[in-house]
Design goal:
about 725 residues; alpha/beta; GIY-YIG endonuclease; seven-stranded parallel β-sheet; six-stranded parallel β-sheet; about 25% strand; binds adenosine-5'-diphosphate; binds zinc ion; ATP binding; primosome; isomerase
Length: about 725
């Protein structure tokens, strides 16, 4: 019998055996429809074997082979197997989650991509006269293809039975799907590279085989230009390029920018903002090699790319590369593995690399490439001033110094940006009489006051309430907003500077599709004087008129219990500060803080990532935190606190009994201990090396799966970023 082992989207770590008709042409990587219980499921053939451990009569036949899409290449299947092993996530769910939704259904895939066919080398060498003359259609096709490649529509025009004939010709090895083979020659040059840029480009292009490069360049140093030159180099060698970008950066502008730089190379984007149809079509174009530049967010790291020759990861420190549910992968780390597997270079770019990456560059695992100068000659780094909030009278969160600085910019017709990492009007509403606070009844968080629609909202579970007219606890009508959010700053500015054009950018104001790109257009068209917003504004945008950045309240992160909080804060502030003075006019950054002596601010003022990174590394080494150890988080949540804690205690006991080489910490409540009426808790595991951690996890996971876990959801998070 002909047996195939199929990956299915089920929470089980096995493959499933099915039989195939002897004459079936199904191959590894192909999609199939198979019976499972009373359902029919889509799966991927992972292996073809001669025999099964199951008794013959228990093996059901494959219902249908879906051959409207090329099989997934073996290389991608290997990558997915690695991810399943490394992240301890069921193989079937890993494989299926890598596909666009359309390919997870048996709906036929209509191809909008022209399928282009051409002769293989053996096909070219054929002497048609020696072939059996009765295969008329095949001969006609071979004959036609000798003149050059043709798409399927042209071939159909030769004969209605062309598709069947083609299949035989492909099978015979004479015809193949041809990819666009002309190298993308045209390349819009914009700048002569600086010496630093050139050195970086040379280091990567002269590299043979796998190499991981950390491109550490200050904001405005022209990392993008380095990417462009590297892409050009790869395209000329007829390679595909994968450019990963953080979620927020995926803007039509970015796409258009790279299109304009490479007018001949087909570019597609892949991100969650695309409709399913478009995403599938783009994916197929990447898979058949037609798309040469793939610009995508984390999920695009799993795109089949037959000619992949270069991977670029922009803003490699960005936490959006880490998926926080399901397969909890880090797209950056998977990309590195992929480059290694394929033997190609990968470049990680950032002004503030993740400490892990910086450490790897220092220890020689990655090669460090530095850009220390801003690329535009006149542009200097912004000057940074700290405002001690203990010493001034603040008005709605703004210091007099910041207000004065804003006024100056308005007079000079320059742009300002106020950065505050809280959306809403105020983080909580309080009763002045009894101290009642607006808390969420279902979570351990507060209800945030949103003034435009007069609502209290929970940012964790989505609960919404009308703002009460008086205190629900004592009836006092005097309820006061406490703390500052983006809406409150916007309201204050509107009152204070009624003539100026103020724009608020946060998740609320950009909820509607297209609103963010409309806003960016307004900014680009110089229609905005003051921008108020969250981290959405910090990343990657080039605002040439911007000369002032105000940071309103960075202090929470300074003394947070999350050991990564200050690393993230530095990156965020460096990035937001980097928005100022990117063109000719010098920029200024004002930071309001109650801790102006904190070493983080000192390093930020000196634009000294390196000394800051060294400080953090020394702390981490002392505390035994990553990158000096490897971590895993076991999380659990459920409706009953008892069940959650018992499960984790038992998990801990089982783990402790397994080994002494890894450290299992105590079971503790999660950072948000209750969400949507579920109790959440966690258990941290730490080891000196992956080599001890991974075997432990392999032994431990089956024990976890065997533990009673009524109504519980639990997950393993490898290399967790959130605590
Ligand atoms: P980064 O991504 O490092 O923050 P960008 O790539 O956005 O920096 O470049 C900053 C600015 O410098 C852009 O306006 C870009 O056009 C310009 N630029 C880049 N390289 C050069 C160069 N070699 N000569 C002149 N200008 C450059
Ligand atoms: Zn009250
Ligand atoms: Zn809630």
């Amino acid at each position: 019998m002909h047996i195939v082992r199929v990956a299915l989207d089920l929470p089980l770590s096995t493959l499933f055996d099915y039989s195939l008709a002897a004459d079936s042409e199904a191959v590894v990587g192909q999609r199939v429809l198979v019976p499972f219980g009373r359902k029919q499921l889509i799966g991927i053939i992972m292996e073809a074997v001669d025999s099964s451990e199951l008794a013959d009569e228990r093996i059901k036949p494959v219902s249908r082979v879906l051959d409207d899409v090329e099989p997934l290449p073996a290389e991608l299947l290997r990558l997915l197997r690695f991810c399943s092993d490394y992240y301890h996530y069921p193989l079937g769910m890993t494989v299926l989650s890598a596909l666009p939704a359309r390919l997870r259904s048996d709906e036929p895939v209509s191809r909008k991509v022209p399928q282009i066919y051409g002769l293989t080398e053996t096909g070219l060498a054929l002497d048609l006269a020696t072939l059996p003359q009765r295969q008329k259609v095949q001969l006609r096709i071979l004959n036609a293809l000798q003149q050059g490649v043709m798409d399927i529509a042209q071939l159909r025009a030769l004969s209605a039975s062309a598709p069947a004939a083609l299949r035989s010709l492909v099978e015979a090895g004479w015809v193949e799907l041809a990819i666009q083979t002309a190298p993308a020659h045209r390349f819009a040059t914009q700048h002569t590279l600086t010496d630093e840029q050139q050195t970086a480009v040379d280091a990567v292009t002269q590299n043979m085989g796998y190499g991981c490069f950390l491109l550490h360049g200050i904001t405005g140093s022209g990392k993008t230009e380095v990417y462009v030159h590297l892409m050009h180099h790869a395209l000329q060698q007829n390679k595909q390029v994968l450019l990963l970008v953080p979620e927020i950066n995926l803007t039509p502008q970015l796409e258009n920018y790279f299109r304009s730089r490479f007018p001949d190379a087909e570019l597609i984007s892949l991100h969650s903002g695309l409709g399913d149809g478009e995403r599938t079509q783009n994916w197929l174009r990447a898979q058949n090699g037609q798309a040469r530049i793939i610009l995508g967010t984390r999920l695009s790291v799993f795109t089949p790319l037959p000619e992949l020759g270069l991977i670029l990861v922009d803003e490699e420190h960005d936490s959006s590369y880490k998926q926080q549910d399901g397969l909890r992968y880090s797209a950056r780390d998977v990309a590195i593995f992929r480059a290694h597997q394929r033997g190609i270079p990968i470049v990680l770019g950032s002004a503030t690399p993740a400490l892990e990456s910086y450490y790897n560059a220092q220890s020689g695992r990655y090669r460090l490439l530095r850009l220390n100068q801003r690329a535009v000659a006149q542009a200097t780094l912004p000057s940074l001033r700290l405002i001690n909030t203990n010493q001034v009278l603040m008005q709605e969160g703004l210091s007099p110094q910041l207000l004065t600085a804003l006024e100056q910019r308005l007079q000079r017709g320059e742009q300002s940006l106020l950065f505050i990492n809280r959306r809403g009007y105020a983080p909580v509403l309080m009763c002045t009489a009894c101290g009642w606070l607006s808390t969420c009844p279902h979570c351990s968080g507060k209800l945030v006051l949103h003034l435009p629609d007069r609502r209290l909202r929970c940012h964790h579970c989505g609960l919404q309430q009308r703002v009460p007219s008086d205190c629900p606890s004592c009836g006092n009508p005097d309820l006061q907003p406490v703390g500052i959010g983006t809406q409150r700053v916007e309201a204050m500015l509107n009152e204070r500077f009624p003539q100026s054009r103020i724009l608020r950018v946060d998740r609320d104001s950009t909820r509607n599709k297209g609103s963010w790109s409309a806003m960016r257009q307004q900014i680009a068209d110089d229609k905005i004087d003051i921008l108020v917003g969250t981290q959405m504004l910090a990343k990657g945008h080039d605002f040439p008129k911007l000369t002032l950045v105000g940071v309103l309240n960075p202090d929470n992160a300074l003394y947070s219990s999350d050991f990564r909080a200050s690393e993230k804060l530095f990156a965020q502030l460096a990035q937001v500060a980097g928005r100022a003075g990117r063109a000719e006019k010098p920029g200024e950054v004002l930071i309001q803080t109650a801790f102006p002596d904190h070493p983080l601010f000192h390093a930020l003022r000196e634009h000294d990532y390196v000394s800051w990174a060294e400080t953090l590394l020394a702390e981490r080494r002392l505390a035994g935190f990553p990158p000096f150890c490897f971590q895993v988080m076991l999380r659990a949540e459920g409706p009953h606190a008892d069940g959650v804690f018992t499960f984790l205690q038992q998990a801990r006991k089982a783990g402790t009994a397994l080994t002494h080489e890894v450290e299992l910490y105590g079971v503790v409540p999660a950072a948000l201990p209750r969400r949507a009426n579920h109790t959440r808790a966690q258990l941290l595991i730490q080891a000196d090396s992956r080599a001890t951690l991974q075997p432990f996890l392999r032994a431990w996971r089956p024990l976890l799966e065997a533990l009673p876990a009524p109504k519980l959801r639990w997950s393993l998070d490898i290399d967790p970023l959130e605590f």
